[in-house]
Backbone:
């Protein structure tokens, strides 16, 4: 069975893009394989909550990002994903 997410990639993004327990918008986007604007759209539509801020930088819970992405994959099956 293929994994949706590479475990090493998730671990790297959580540690490198994190402050406390959160990942940056850019790291969240990379983790989910979407554009940063998609992450901001999830927030605006109430699909994803900001875990905290450091200055103007929003931070997100990595697990919450993955859950929103999985839900989006189920509803948008067949749409092309961003490749990184």
Residues:
């Amino acid at each position: 069975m293929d994994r949706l997410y590479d475990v090493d990639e998730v671990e790297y993004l959580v540690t490198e893009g994190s402050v406390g327990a959160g990942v940056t918008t850019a790291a969240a986007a990379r983790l989910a394989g979407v554009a940063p604007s998609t992450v901001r759209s999830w927030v605006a539509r109430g699909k994803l909550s900001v875990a905290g801020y450091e200055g103007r930088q929003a931070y997100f819970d990595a697990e919450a990002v993955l859950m929103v992405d999985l839900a989006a994959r189920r509803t948008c099956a067949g749409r092309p994903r961003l490749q990184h």
The mean pLDDT is 77. The longest helix spans residues 62-75. The radius of gyration is 12 Å.
